[in-house]
Write a sequence for this structure.
């Protein structure tokens, strides 16, 4: 690691930044809903993409709004459990040259993940691809029911980061990063747009070069 007196961290969002799991998530949710006996339209990739980045309770309120509150949250919990099991077996779609880029980044920076997902989702990603060796710590909404801004700050503080960027793809990611007091890089290739002047990535593999230019 460069300059051990300054601990430089890169904290990553998951969906739209490291991978696109929407199609397999939709398949696993439809599978769960069918097994539970609900007569509902199948969950589509577009359904999942429309709620990516939101906390799990908000997703339940959107996709299962017609169900009583307690029932919708229970159904979402069952969907999340099956989703984790499905992704451990099937993975998702990684963005091009993801692992090669992570290897380069690991040489100079400390790597982390913070997501609004359920507990076990990040672990499914790490387990399927064997990526645990690249990331030192993770945090998510499902672990503590805290918003992303809180969890970004929590992770940065417990890992004693003196300088860090959060890399995400949506306005919500940017807002959470500002709340946490960190710097932001927009994964422009992902699912969202940002209403702010920030460094941008057109592809994940550009990140090492971009950091050379902006990370002091």
């Amino acid at each position: 690691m460069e300059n051990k007196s300054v601990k430089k961290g890169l904290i990553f969002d998951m969906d739209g930044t490291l991978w696109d799991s929407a199609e397999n998530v939709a398949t696993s949710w439809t599978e769960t809903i069918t097994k539970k006996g609900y007569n509902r339209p199948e969950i589509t990739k577009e359904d999942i993409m429309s709620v990516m980045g939101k906390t799990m309770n908000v997703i339940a309120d959107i996709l299962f709004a017609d169900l009583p509150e307690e029932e919708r949250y229970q159904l979402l919990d069952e969907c999340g459990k099956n989703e984790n099991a499905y992704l451990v077996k099937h993975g998702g779609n990684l963005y091009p040259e993801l692992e090669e880029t992570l290897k380069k980044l690991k040489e100079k920076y400390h790597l982390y993940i913070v997501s609004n997902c359920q507990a076990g989702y990040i672990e499914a990603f790490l387990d399927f691809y064997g990526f645990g060796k690249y990331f030192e710590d993770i945090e998510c909404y499902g672990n503590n029911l805290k918003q992303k801004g809180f969890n970004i700050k929590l992770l940065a503080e417990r890992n004693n980061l003196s300088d860090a960027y959060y890399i995400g793809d949506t306005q919500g990611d940017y807002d959470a990063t500002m709340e946490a007091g960190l710097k932001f890089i927009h994964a422009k290739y992902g699912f969202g747009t940002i209403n702010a002047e920030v460094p941008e990535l057109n592809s994940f593999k550009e990140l090492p070069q971009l950091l050379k230019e902006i990370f002091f």
User: Anything to note?
Assistant: The longest strand covers residues 110-115. Residues 69-90 form the longest helix (22 residues). The chain has a mean pLDDT of 95. The two ends are 14 Å apart (CA to CA).
